[in-house]
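[Amino acid chain]
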Amino acid sequence: MTDSSRHVACVGGIVFDPDGRLLLVRRANEPGRGLWSVPGGRVEAGESEHEAVVRELAEETGLTVVPGRLAGVVLRGPYRIADYLCTLATGDGIPRAGDDATDARFVDRADYATLAVVEGLTETLGGWDCLPRT
């Protein structure tokens, strides 16, 4: 069993629009600066993982989400990232890059295939059946 106290607690949000496109952000900071990934970040002190997902997605994409079930957990260097399936809550559903992101958009399969994504993202999302559906 992995000792999670050795890792920085992080979360990510896996969000699909009504057309089955996946929400991605282009990272503004390391790790993975300039590469595309699901939005997310560190869990702050006193915050639950669900609270962190809601906050991080609002900061990075301007979208309000409702976190659902845990899709899975990945370890990347010092980071333990718990990725949650989320649904859009309210608003126009148009992502706007914010804190820690230089771009944010919903992508279909064809778009996804052209993007430079963070290491291991495609394999991980594919294993969880969370790649773009259209």
The longest helix spans residues 49-61.
